[in-house]
């Protein structure tokens, strides 16, 4: 968005990027030094051509991009609604009997008992409070049945 706001449609891509202080070609911006073999057998790095310093007329673009990049990344640890419903259904109907869960008709992906157990553990780790409340809500129902 920073580049979009500073972009001048009447100039070329190279001119726009040069004004912002950005490189058009990364190979030219940070050149890889070529090594020449001398007749003696020693390697000598060639300097090549030094590109002329370009005048940066819009330095705020690079500064804003650096500032945005330095912000900490927001973690979005969530599970899909389908997986949550699947795990809750399995626990509600089968308790902790993973072999029975694997044979359930709602096991569309034909998960093995270990895969189902892993999914339940992922749910426990992502939503520990919700899991505790869910298990607590199941216990009174089972006591009434017995």
Automatic annotation (TrEMBL):
Predominant localisation class: nucleus
Protein name, entry field: Nucleolar protein 16
Taxonomy of the source species: Eukaryota, Metazoa, Chordata, Craniata, Vertebrata
Keyword Nucleus: yes
Endpoints of the signal sequence: none
Any GO CC annotation of this UniProt entry: nucleolus
Gene from which the chain derives: Nop16
GO terms of biological process kind: ribosomal large subunit biogenesis
Keyword terms of this UniProt record: Nucleus
Pfam families: Nop16
UniProt-annotated location(s): Nucleus, Nucleolus
Record family assignment: Belongs to the NOP16 family.
Organism: Machaerirhynchus nigripectus
Keyword set includes Transcription regulation: no
